[in-house]
Amino acid sequence: MVTDVARVYDALATTARRRRWQRHVLGYVFIAPWLIGFFVFFAGPMLASAVLAFTNYDILSPPKFIGLGNFERMIGDELFYAALYNTAYYTFLAVPLQVALALLLAVALNIKVRGVNIFRTAFYLPAITPAVASVILWVYIYNPDYGLANTALHFFGVKPIGWLWDPIWSKPALIIMSLWTIGTQMVVSLAGLQSVPDVLLEAASIDGAGRLRRFWHVTVPMVSPVIFFNLVVGIINSFQVFTAAFIATGGGPRNTTLFYVLHLYYNGFRDFRMGYASALAWVLFCIILVFTLIQFWLAQRWVHYESPK
Amino acid sequence: MQRQARFSRRGFIRGAALSGVAILVAACAPSAPSPTPAAKSEAKPTVPAAASPTAKVEAKPTTATQPTAQPTAAAKAESKPAAGAVTVEFWVDPAEGKAEAMWQKAIDEFQQKNPNIRPKVVVVPYSDAENKTLTAIAGNVPIDLVYVHPMWNATFAVKGVTVALEDRMARDMTKAEIDDFYLGAITYFRWAGKTYGLPVYSGPNTFYYNKELLGKAGLEDPWELYKKGDWTIKKHDEFVAKLSTGTGATRVYGSSGISRSIRNQAGWIWGYGGDVWSEDFKQTLIATDKSLEAWEYLASLVKKGYAPTPAEGQALPGGSLGGFNSGRIAIYYGIRQSVYQFKEDGKWGVVPIHKMPDGKEYTRDGPNALGLTKLSKNPDAAWTWMKFAITRGVEWLMEARATAPTTRTLAKSQTWQKSLLPWENAEVYDIAAKQVETRVLAHLPGMSELDRAIQAAFDKVVLGEATAKQAMTEAKPKVEAILKEKMG
Hints:
The complex is a heterodimer.
Chain A: H1 2-52, E1 55-56, E2 64-65, H2 69-76, H3 78-109, H4 116-128, H5 131-141, H6 148-155, H7 170-178, H8 183-193, H9 198-206, H10 211-222, H11 224-239, H12 243-249, H13 260-270, H14 274-302
Helix pairs in contact in A: 1-14, 2-14, 3-7, 3-8, 3-11, 3-13, 4-8, 5-12, 8-11, 9-10, 11-14, 13-14
Chain B: H1 9-28, E1 86-92, H2 99-113, E2 117-123, H3 126-138, E3 145-148, H4 150-158, H5 166-172, H6 175-179, H7 183-187, E4 190-191, E5 194-195, E6 198-201, E7 206-210, H8 211-216, H9 222-227, H10 233-243, E8 253-255, H11 262-271, H12 289-303, H13 310-315, H14 319-325, E9 329-334, E10 348-351, E11 368-372, H15 379-399, H16 408-411, H17 414-419, H18 426-438, H19 447-462, H20 468-487
Parallel strand pairs in B: 1-2, 8-9
Antiparallel strand pairs in B: 3-11, 4-5, 6-11, 7-9, 7-10
Helix pairs in contact in B: 2-15, 11-12, 12-19, 19-20
């Protein structure tokens, strides 16, 4: 009797184990396409790049191990420092402007007026315009002789600016260009604003807080997680700025728009120094990782996740 | 009570998985055979007014002193390759968008006698050609003939992209035929004593000028001055100074400036007594006293406002060429290929480059060649096409005004004479071709990168951020580091 029960118990346990195993296998089968894509297009190349960073590789002959040679080259490469400076300049000016402007725009688009959806669409559209087309458009806008930008300045009696062709104005020009595509951040900010409980704002209003105080002391803390998200993503993306500089300026004038990823691209795909480009890629990865960790650490002081009970 | 059909999650997942598998299977199934390429129909033959063809389709260049044949009238609208035909893929410069049409005429004629070989033209822009070729070769793409330019000929040779042609040339070409090439047109494609490309395009630099602007300024025609032996660097400077007028959107530059590349600037460096490379190519001589004089001169054209800065040139609608066309630049340093972009109603002139301070005349050529790759699956067929392309093919390109002659024989041909616009002058181009022969700059492996390093230094001089001595002295070790890396 006991043996029979044990046998039945074993059979049940085996069936249960088989069913669990089938469920696991089925789960992996369904995520297999993503897994394959991840290993083939992401993890695999990352691993290859990590190895190539220690080699001389021009894609036409096999990689040759050179130890830390690429990193030593980086130390002596003045364009590396120029690219780092340009990227840092761009990031630390563009990102705060993008986040602030996106938030202000979201506040404006959060006002319930007739046709607000049309405005929301209009402000979001540039974010989905193909990047190359946008940049080419802006190159025309910035043309020193006949562009819209200088025409507008001329209207206000301001001297024309060289914009993309002026070493001083080239980066600010690209930063202004980047503000045109804050639609995605605006939408995220808008979603955050719409989750701010009205009761808090009403309570603040009753206590005598004006608009600005309500915004600064109620709205901003409530949307701080969204601001934090935009900040982190903005910094990660800005450190990888490439398209605008590649199309509009090629890194010029005088390497003032030679951003880090553009420098990496030129080394890898123009000069065929794949090993050095891989080393540059890993250094960028480390820089972005460090900045992101710093942000997460600082976030403890100003990002509020708790919702009111 | 009727039972309602229930569509469960499991059913949805099963359906989605089955659809996904079906799509994958359909995508992985072999594709339907592609239809036979439609024959090109734009090859309307140009009926020659004069002599019958003397050049054979097998493409041995003629050595006769009389003008060579006009392009034949034999090209048919349709040319179907014979069964068992091999395709020879060859990469060429876009030639301002006209390459495919021009080469198709040559292909149609070639296929009359060679139905088993089907040349296929692939257009690759100059700015992408070097990288695309290297990437394609690295990816084992079996290109037969690649577009070779002096800037990357040595790189291709050193990396084994192209193969030396000596054996084939010795077998199929006579010494007279090889010597018939303008020295400038073929020397650029030699490296370490071997030939890695044969030219299908030549374009020695000359000055094009706006006769109206010169007339308004009361200046004599430069070509007349040249014939008198008075077209010197000093005279050129006087001209550009007088022609540079106005400000802002109405500013006129006397000169387009000399194109910012060492291959163009070398003539001036030699003219001032300097040099670019040491004899062993291990050092650069761009920072010697004589070379520095040349750099200061070239920068002065911009600093004095006679030529646009790189940024100003880019900002002109259509760049420098557009500026010349619109009357914003009076004297344009250009190549023959640019000519068919000039406004038809413009009053243009052409003159060889002026005499340099050392009394000699230099100019550069930027020929394009076809190079046979190591990956070609049909090298013999590719070579047969190449022999045709470098002679009859060039004649078709000359007819389309896409090239100056690459050989002395072609220079005497009716095709060349007829291709010239009314204001053009065959004598000028002949002189220019000979000016190239005064001295040919060695284009080394990694030439593009070497050039960039030198131009970065030159930019500082142009913009007044450094003297030529400071900039070139700073650039010298960087250039030599690249030389060491690329030359081994």
